[in-house]
Write a structure and sequence with these properties.
The complex is a heterodimer of chains A (112) and B (112). By secondary structure, chain A is mostly beta strands. Chain A has no helices and eleven strands. In chain A, the strands form two sheets. In chain A, strands 2, 4, 5, 9, 10 and 11 form a six-stranded mixed beta sheet that branches. A five-stranded antiparallel beta sheet of chain A has the order 1-3-8-7-6, with no helix packed on it. In chain A, a hairpin with a 6-residue loop joins strand 4 and strand 5 (45-50). The chains are: A mainly beta (112), B mainly beta (112). Chain A binds chain B through residues 4, 8, 32-34, 36, 42-46, 49, 88, 90, 92, 97-105, and chain B through 31, 33, 40-45, 48, 50, 56, 58-59, 90, 97-106.
Chain lengths: 112, 112
């Protein structure tokens, strides 16, 4: 069973703090990793993708990947109330071209 | 403007009715997907398509069917709706990278 695990939260941080969201996956052959943001009542939207070990930065967002530990994380610097949403981790398992496996998501609340 | 459209946005229907959820995209993407999402749960892939006349079932067993007669159109049909079909249905498309999904607004289906 290929699984993606996330802490469901809620994760509550004050405005301006760093929010750290974590994700583990079970399939060692997984090739690519994605973070989606889903506001309440809305559809998911892609915010980050990462394919190799290390860090990838895009504005206030940093994705981190450690394939040896089967761990991917998302850091949000200078968190804003508008970042309050559910963050979904998605993994493209090895050998599967078209199917992502999603985690249940972590609800982030940024308090003003 | 390139986009992906789903109709209806909300649907309340009685048991036994036949329904079709519409999904169209103007992005020119070959790959299209149907996901099912319940509150607080993962997105589950129920159908996907590589292109015209190509459809596959996803990981989650579903009593629905799909068709792909035109690149831009990927409707989902339930022949006989049941209360267990109550859920949010999300349509998505992608270009080359199957991890980079663009989602429609979703259809919230309630079967009474």
């Amino acid at each position: 069973q290929k699984e993606v695990e996330q802490n469901s939260g809620p994760l509550s941080v004050p405005e301006g703090a760093i929010a750290s969201l974590n994700c583990t996956y079970s399939d060692r052959g997984s090739q690519s990793f994605f973070w989606y943001r889903q506001y309440s009542g809305k559809s998911p939207e892609l915010i980050m993708s990462i394919y190799s070990n290390g860090d990838k930065e895009d504005g206030r967002f940093t994705a981190q990947l450690n394939k040896a530990s089967q761990y991917v994380s998302l850091l949000i610097r200078d968190s804003q109330p508008s970042d309050s949403a559910t963050y979904l981790c998605a993994v493209n398992p090895g050998g599967s071209n078209y199917k992502l496996t999603f985690g249940k998501g972590t609800l982030l609340t940024v308090n003003p | 403007e390139a986009d992906i459209y789903q109709t209806p946005r909300y649907l309340v229907i009685g048991t036994g009715k036949k329904i079709t959820l519409e999904c169209s995209q103007t992005m020119g993407h070959d790959k299209m997907y149907w996901y099912q999402q319940d509150p607080g749960m993962e997105l589950h892939l129920i159908h996907y398509s590589y292109g015209v006349n190509s459809t596959e079932k996803g990981d989650l067993s579903s009593e629905s069917t799909v068709s792909r007669i035109r690149t831009e159109h990927f409707p989902l049909t339930l022949e006989s709706a049941r209360p267990s079909h109550t859920s949010q249905y999300l349509c998505a498309s992608s270009e080359y990278n199957p991890g980079k999904l663009f989602f429609g607004s979703g259809t919230q289906l309630s079967v009474l």
